[in-house]
C-alpha cells in the first residue's frame, strides 16, 4: 500500500489499517482506489467533489477529513464545501458540480438515476468518464462502509464534521 501512487505518505489510518487484516483483498482494494484517485478521465475537482458527496451521504467522517482539503485544492469552493457539510444542496456551485451532486444523490438515495440526470452528467464526462465515475462512487462507498463497520476514528484532536444520526 505504501508503494502505490499515494507514496510513502500513506498512513495506516482510514480504511488501510482495516485492509491489512486481509492483505490480498487490501492490495486489490487500494489498487482500485489508486486508479480511482489518479487514473481516470474524470477531472480531479469533480472526482473529489463526488467523494465528498459520498462521504456526506454515508456520514463518513474520516473520508471527509481526508478529501475536503484535496477537493478545495482541486478547485471546489469553500462555500460549496460548507453547504455540502451542512447537508444542503450546494445551489451556488458551478453547473458541473451540481450535475455531480444530483447524480450521486439520486443514485445513492433512489438506487438508480433518471435518464435526465444521466444525460446531464454524460454530456460532461462521456462514455469512459461515466464508467469511471460510477467506479469512483462504488469505491468510495466501499471505503465509507469500511470506515463505518470497523468504527475507524478520526485522528486525535479532529472534531466530527457533521452530526451522527440519532440512535
Description:
The chain has 7 helices and no strands. The chain is mainly α and 167 residues long. The chain has a single domain, classed as AhpD-like (Up-down Bundle), CATH 1.20.1290. Helix 2 runs antiparallel to helix 7, helix 3 packs antiparallel against helix 4 and helix 3 crosses helix 7. It is globular and about 40 Å long.
Q: If you compute it from the alpha carbons, what radius of gyration comes out, rounded to the nearest whole angstrom?
A: 15 Å
Report the top-level CATH class.
Mainly Alpha
Uncertain segments are 5-10
Q: What's the helical proportion of residues?
A: 55-70%
Oligomer: single chain
How much of the polypeptide forms β-strand, as a percent range?
Answer: under 5%
Order of helices and strands: HHHHHHH
CA-CA gap between termini: 35 Å
Main structural class? mainly alpha
Overall number of structural domains: 1
Report the CATH topology name: AhpD-like
Domain Carboxymuconolactone decarboxylase-like: 23-102
InterPro entries: AhpD-like, CMD-like
GO molecular function: peroxiredoxin activity
Protein name: Carboxymuconolactone decarboxylase-like domain-containing protein
